[in-house]
Amino acid sequence: MSLRSAEKLVSMSSECCLGDVMEKKTNIEYLFEPRSVAVIGASQNKAKIGYRIVENIVSSGYKGRVYPINPKGGEILGCAVYPTLSKVKGEVDLAVIAIPARFVFDSLKGCAEKGVKHLVIITSGFSEVGNTTEERKIVQFARAYGMRVLGPNIFGIYSSAASLDATFGPGGILPGHIAIVTQSGALGIAMIGKTAAESLGLSTLVSVGNKSDIDESDLLEYLANDDGTRVILLYIEGVNQGDRLVESLKRVTRLKHVVVIKSGRSKRGAMAVASHTGSLAGADEIFDSLMHQCGVLRAESVQEAFNWARFLAEAPLLKGKDAVIITNGGGIGVLATDACEKYGVALYDNPRTLKEAFAQVMPDFGSAKNPIDLTGQATSEDYARALEAALENDDIHAVMALYCETALFDTVEFARLLQREYRHYQGSKPIVFSLFGGEKIEAVIRKLRKQGIPVFSDVYDAVSCLGALYRSWRNLHEPQEVAEELPIDVEGVESILDRARSEERGFLLANEAQQVAEILGLDTPRSILARNLDEAVQAAEQIGYPVVIKVVSKDIIHKSDAGGVAIDLEDESELIDAYQAVMRSCRAYKPDAIIRGVEVVEMIRPGVETIIGARQDPSFGPIIMFGLGGIYVEVMKDVSFRAAPISNREAHDMIASIRSYPLLLGVRGEKRKDIDAIAEVGIKLGNLVERCRDITDIEINPLVVYDHGEGVKAVDIRILFRNL
Ligand code: ACO
User: Fold this and answer.
1) Cβ neighbour number for residue 706 with a 10 Å cutoff
2) CB atoms within 10 A of CB 378
3) pLDDT: is 477 or 46 the higher one?
4) What's the 235 CA to ligand 1 centre distance in angstroms?
5) DSSP E strands: which ranges in 212-331?
6) pLDDT confidence bin for 554, thresholds 50/70/90
7) Which pLDDT band, with edges at 50, 70 and 90, does 94 fall under?
8) Which of 82, 86, 99 most suits a substitution to test ligand 1, by most atoms within 8 Å of the C-beta?
9) What is the mean pLDDT of residues 15-33?
10) Ligand 1 mean position, distance from CA 78 (Å)
């Protein structure tokens, strides 16, 4: 395509979506491992970003070719400066752009002519401040020429595979195995210093900024297969194409540990994020559930994420679930036990094996139950022997070694001991240490941490790292299941929606929703539409008392609020009274409402009331929600979500994720409820909203659940859809 026609295409298509523009594929590897880098806006002025970038590229030891670009020419740090990109002789894989926003688009033409593969646009002043048109124009032009855009509004990219620091950060990034992808620039730059201070080695550090083109999903594609990356740490503020992200994460977590920090947990935080990056933060509960579904570890804070990442990057995978606590202090052992429960670390509890393993190293008054309490009398030799007994034992899969400062230990000697044991056993099983004491102990912690040994002063921090490994390990061992595509008559559903659309409605009436339920094969209470009192009496006789009646009117959506529902009608006289009462109150509620009659419905026997629904989420696309009904959902907000469609395992996992799940397992002698039947409904709803994207909301409330084997009843179904 000629430059002129591409420009024309951009101006024509500024309103249309990117998919309309011819796209050439570009290999994402060139972003991380470019053979040559140009810096557009390179400056000799040391105070400018364009200088800092060249300085970092040179000092990070990048082996490829560097081309600073500036109309003034000259030299920067020994690199010849080219007045324009066209003057560069060789190929250019990556162009880092650090010139004011108003010049960026013009600079792209030179990049396109040069065949640049990736643009790293540092410049601010685009969609984050409302300048969306210019940003879109840039991306459309770039895509038309097979160039991908990272940014704009970013601090750059670091890649250890290429020894390339193309950021304007403080430099000094340590190479290692943790990849950081951050949406926040300022936090990302601060992470450079912070990771160096904590001796955390990085395989890459990428700032995604406005995510105009390249987003987390694109980067994950590379990182998943990058041998240098063991842990991926994502800092996310808002999610744009969440369904794509979920797809990528599900794949990547099978290969690497993925840790995420998401800001905007609180309502106020979410508002701050929305104004900060210009992207909408998805509801936090949904994000949380979906990350769990993908096997991603969500950290509460940056520090927690760093602790996990560092530990996961070095720890071997678990060979089994049984962990042992070795301690010289009973109290700290109990704290660790509590922490194990909180973080899902399973404690080994076979008393015979424990006794055999530790009998030789225990004082008479110690405890060979887990935690293994060596007591305050233990010397460092006792401690070493106990530690080795645990590390040598194949039935023990992970070790938490705790220590409370006592006068019986020589601190310097003890530090050497931990170092020796850790180095010797680190490849065979996961080990964490927690040391509690004064200044000398703190100094030991600092020293060992600098060497990459997982030592913490807070026992909860130590166990939380192990907990992260357990969760990642469990995810790896979950069988991989693909959501099944069910034979649903989607066209039949669409034609029901079309009929409702012809009446200019964006919701289905009860009898229409009932038809959708039939298409899905949901078990619903028997129901008959009655246009008048006589028909209602006949219908009730046909169904059998007791019955429920519900008003049918397109003008009344919230039937209960209008007094349009009467339940538990035992006989004909109760039905007649209720019918008249319903008509009276609905007319009073909305005098101009057109009432088509009432729906006479079978009064179903009681069970556990749950709520299950599905909808199109603005960030993640089709999602499913499940919770217990009544106060559980309204007051406790005890619900869980999954990205749709869902497999059988995901459906069961979603149901088991709610806090009140034990009620479904049966409490106080009650039988287990029919959880399989709930899962089946979830799978069907997921299939429907994934394939019928016009349905914006479908909610079954209540879905009454009976004992195991007795099924569920979808009592009330509400369906909202796009009225095009
Ligand atoms: N080609 C090559 N060089 C050019 C071009 C061009 N088309 N146009 C201008 N230049 C040169 C300029 O002459 C100048 O060189 P000089 O110092 O020799 O005179 C150099 O490029 C830079 O241009 P300036 O106009 O001096 O721009 P300045 O450096 O002040 O700012 C910048 C450019 C840094 C991109 C600014 O516009 C900007 O966006 N700053 C914010 C960056 C940012 O914060 N990004 C987000 C990071 S994440 C976070 O939140 C921390």
Assistant:
1) 18
2) 25
3) 46
4) 26
5) 231-236, 257-262, 297-298, 323-327
6) confident
7) very high
8) 99
9) 59
10) 21
Mean pLDDT, all residues of the chain: 89
Torsion angles phi and psi, residue 74, rounded to 5: 95, -145
Q: Give Cα separations from 528 to 518, 520, 523, 540, 544 (angstroms).
A: 14, 19, 15, 8, 12
Q: If DSSP codes are grouped into helix, strand and coil, which group holds residue 39?
A: strand
Q: Give the pLDDT score at 43.
A: 97
Q: What residue type is 706 in one-letter code? A: Y
Tokens 């369906």, located at residue: 719
For residue 468 the two structure tokens come to 């992260």
State the virtual CA torsion across 39, 44, 47, 49 in degrees, nearest 10.
0
pLDDT band (50, 70, 90) for residue 366 = low
Instruction: Return the residue whose CA atom lies nearest to atom 41 of ligand 1.
Output: 124
Within 6 Å (CB) of ligand 1, which residues are found?
40-41, 43-45, 48-50, 69-72, 98-100, 103, 107, 122-125, 153-155, 185-186, 189, 207
Distance, CA of 512 to CA of 516 (rounded, Å):
7
CA distance 589 to 553: 12
- Segment 629-640 shows an average pLDDT of 75
Q: Is the pLDDT of residue 705 over 60?
A: yes
- From ligand 1's centre to the CA of 208, what distance in Å? 18
Distance 69 CA to ligand 1 centre (A): 12
Q: What is the pTM of this model?
A: 0.87
Angle, CA 52 vertex, CA 46 and CA 56 arms, to 5°: 135
Tokens of 29: 């590897």
**Residue 192: per-residue pLDDT:** 92
608-617/621-628 β-pairing: antiparallel
pLDDT band at residue 248 using 50, 70 and 90 as cut-offs: very high
Residue type, 365: F
Q: Is the distance from CB of 119 to CB of 150 less than 8 angstroms?
A: yes
Contacts of residue 22, defined as CB under 8 A and 6 or more positions apart, other chains included, come to: 1, 144
